[in-house]
Amino acid sequence: MGGKILISACLLGHAVRYDGKGKLLSHPAIERWKNEGRLVSICPEMAGGMPVPRPPAEIENGASGLDVLEGRARVLEITGGDVTAEFIRGAQKALVFAQDNGCDYALLIDGSPSCGSIAIYDGSFSGLKHAGNGITAALLAKAGISIFSHDQIEQLVQLPE
């Protein structure tokens, strides 16, 4: 697998998540890709102007990132704040950043309203997830970037060089 990989900054252990923590993904390929200069990291939520820590946020009513991008749903904080604009701005910045850096792939943390690619929280703040993607994952996929969740790193590793 050639090409650069956009990676969620939290997966590199950066303390950028809503709870002020990272979520380090430990895998030999991460170190190799880092040494090869192929990893490009971003936190779309921080790029969109959100602070750390921040209230948990979910896409409302079981909707998806594409619904948000197309104006059919919002991203709401558990406190009721509407952070849709910040999430869209972060997704747009992540896409430009990925394209400027020649990223063909993205390795994103699943579950997130930005980076989720397999399942995201359903908007009820009850811990329930449903199949769907986050806003950044949806925008990157629309632009032709291949998306892998952190649980799919083995599939990314298996791609031919």
Describe what this molecule looks like in 3D.
With 161 residues, this protein is α/β, with parallel strands linked by helices. It contains six helices and eight strands, in the order E-H-E-H-E-H-E-H-E-E-E-H-E-H. It has helices spanning 28-35, 44-47, 65-69, 84-100, 135-142, 153-158, and strands at residues 4-8, 39-42, 57-59, 75-77, 103-108, 119-121, 129-131, 146-149. The strands form three sheets. The chain has a four-stranded parallel beta sheet. The mean pLDDT is 96.
Brief characterization of the structure:
The chain is of the alpha/beta class.
The quaternary structure here is single chain
The whole-number mean of residue pLDDT values reads 96
Q: Which term fits the overall shape?
A: globular
**Number of contiguous helices:** 6
Strand order of the largest sheet: 2-1-5-8
Uncertain ranges: none
Structural class: alpha/beta
Count of strand segments: 8
Helix content: 25-40%
- Give the H and E element order: EHEHEHEHEEEHEH
Distance between the termini: 3 Å
Please outline the major beta sheet.
4 strands, parallel
Rounded to an integer in angstroms, the radius of gyration calculated over CA atoms is 15 Å
Strand content: 15-25%
